[in-house]
Amino acid sequence: MEKLIEAIQAKSPAMTTWPEVKKFADTWVQTANADRTPAAANKDVTVTRTYDMLDNEIALAIKGVNPLHAKAADVTAAKELINQRDQTWRAWSMSLRVIVGILDIDREIIFKMITAGLSYPEFSTNPDMRRKFIHKCLSERCGMTFEAEEKPALNTASKAADSQQKEPSCQDESLKVQSLGDGKSSIDGLMGNSEKTIEPADETLVTPSQSVTTAKAAVQSENKAPTADDEITTDDFQTRASVLEKELDSKEGDAAKNLDIWKRVQRTDPARTKRKDTRDNSGKVIRTVTSIRPTYQYMRATEIFGPFGIGWGVDVLEERFDPGIPLMEGIIDSAGRETGKKVMRDGDGKILTSLNHTMKIMLWYNHAGARGEIIAYGHTKYLYASKFGLSVEEEPSKKSLTDATTKALSSLGFSADVYLGMFEDNEYTQENEYEHNIKNASAKADDSVRLRKELDERFKANTKTMREAVTSNEVTKICSSLTRVIGSHIKSAKAVADTEHVKYLESRLTRLEEIKGECLAKFEEEKQ
To answer: How far apart are the C-alpha atoms of 493 and 500, rounded to whole Å?
Structure first.
């Protein structure tokens, strides 16, 4: 049915009348598969595949549903799984998203691969085993190439067992993957002839037990599985934040100059926020409050303006206690039961009220040679009634000062995404979380995929220059420069326990030393 729909779209994208559709469908069904014109031959009809679609396909596969046969109820269940941030879904999504060209892989292949991998729960918690399994399947099935991985030495018994067991293979020579652009691909040989019965063995992407055995043999026992909190879901959502950033970037002249600070500080690191959900009696979230850690905002202000007290600071202009609502106390009868409420009074008969601490400040800052000043107010409950009785805040001045300072900074755009309500948007939250985790892992890259691409490009350019160098001193200088760059990336990756990226960078460093040795050996031969 999917082939028929694609063929109809390829035949006449503008076809609107039912008789035309029915006539073409009847003709297409009666035509042999070999005589049909492939729908992919029409370059004008393409369906853009996105990471959103990939996430849905992963969730459907976890639910045991083939994306090509999914119903509305299946799609709804898959979206619920994504919204719940299921650990298994996050694990597979993380591993697949970082693969360059994953959107060009056919849905059927991804479904079969995940189905096979789900037979072994350890894939959901061990990223190394999961990654090796995915790389092996995609390499054998689609011909994708990945960086060579260092394998641990095998003992004599393992070698003997390995020699007796044939290496499992996912390779199918009849499969040919052709990228059509815009995230769409054509895979000849996957479905085969529609008139030909498909054997059950052909339906299995790879024998699960074989893949797991191979993956386990390549993973060292000391590797620890990361927790779910260590796994990061990547994304390329076109959210309100992206629209806002594009709008800000499009500003010119004075508008761009005025928004300079705002654009630099509007995004908030999710790790520096705290979310609190208020639920009703049924457990449904009726209100969500995202609070920002004040020290994080102070750090961001110091980055922009300079040290506190020099580049920016706060002057307290006023501090007072404001009366609030009257405090109430219960009326207790002779049986000890509460029969009502009455106003609470002090010893002189004066009505007692709640008290709120208020502080007025002036936040000043130096920017572009000018001094700016912002007036802001901070408030803190000082005396109030709680379920434990009367409560008194011990540090009202400190809390009011913090409240006023963060409000003043928000006027400059600090953490504007929180105040604009973007943290209530799940898509924005996922994207923002990924972006900031990548920035924390390496300040020189926006994400791990782009980091590898940039490093590979520099690696290729430098090694080419090394091979064309005319002196050994030139080779050494180029190698030393690139070694320092790779070393800094390794240090950043180790700081966040990104073992996978560390292995990749170390393999690049090893290869660089090999190339250096080859180049220096060439000069030694010339001297002799």
So the answer is: 9
Q: Nearest CA to 416 among 274, 244, 162, 185?
A: 244
Residues whose CB falls within 8 Å of the CB of residue 253, separated by 6 or more in sequence, listed in order: none
Identify the burial level of 9 via C-beta atoms within 10 angstroms of its C-beta, where 0-12 means exposed, 13-18 middle and 19 or more buried. middle
**Which residue type occupies 171?**
Q
Q: Which two tokens stand for residue 509?
A: 């460093």
Q: Is residue 493 a contact partner of residue 502, using CB atoms and an 8 Å limit?
A: yes
Distance separating alpha carbons of residues 31 and 248, to the nearest angstrom: 55
Site of tokens 């404001």? 322
Q: How far apart are CA 393 and CA 380, in angstroms?
A: 8
pLDDT tens-digit series, residues 11-56: 555 545 666 767 777 777 777 665 655 554 444 445 678 888 888 8
In angstroms, the CA 210 to CA 165 distance is: 10
78: amino acid identity, one letter = A
User: Which residue type sits at 219?
Assistant: V
Q: Which residues contact 252 (CB under 8 A, 6 or more apart)?
A: none
Interatomic CA distance for residues 144 and 181, integer angstroms: 17
d(CA 83, CA 75): 12
**Strands (DSSP E) along 447-498, which ranges?**
none
What pTM was computed for the model?
A: 0.39
Task: Give me the amino acid identity at 100.
Answer: V
CA–CA distance, 387 with 19 (Å, rounded to integer): 72
- If you search the block for the tokens 């998203």, which residue do you land on? 97
Pairing between strand 176-181 and 184-188?
A: antiparallel
How many CA atoms within 13 Å lie on the side-chain side of 116?
A: 24
Contacts of 236 (CB under 8 A, 6+ apart): 50, 51, 431
How much of the chain is helix, strand and coil, in % rounded to 5?
50, 15, 30
Q: At what angle do helices 107-117 and 51-62 cross, to 10 degrees?
A: 40
Query: For the chain, what are the domain ranges?
Result: 46-225, 240-436, 443-527
* CA–CA distance, 384 with 256 (Å, rounded to integer): 46
The size of the chain, in residues, is 528
Of residues 88, 99, 87, 96, the one with CA closest to residue 62? 88
Query: 142 in helix, strand or coil?
Result: helix
| Residue 276: both structure tokens together | 């609190």
- Any idea which residue has 């600090």 for tokens? 414
Tokens linked to 453:
């691409």
Q: What is the token pair recorded at 4?
A: 């028929």
Which CB contacts under 8 angstroms, 24+ apart, belong to 144-150?
144/99, 144/101, 144/105, 147/504, 147/507, 148/507, 149/218, 149/503, 149/507, 150/503, 150/507
Q: What digits encode the pLDDT tens for the residues 74-120?
A: 888 888 888 888 888 888 888 888 788 888 888 888 998 999 888 88
Query: 285-292 and 273-279 as β-strands: parallel, antiparallel, unpaired?
Result: antiparallel
Fill in the DSSP letter of residue 470: S
The one-character DSSP state at 118 is: T
Residue with tokens 């705002």: 262
Q: What are phi and psi of 423, to 5 degrees?
A: -70, -10
Helix or strand run (H / E) with residue 269: none
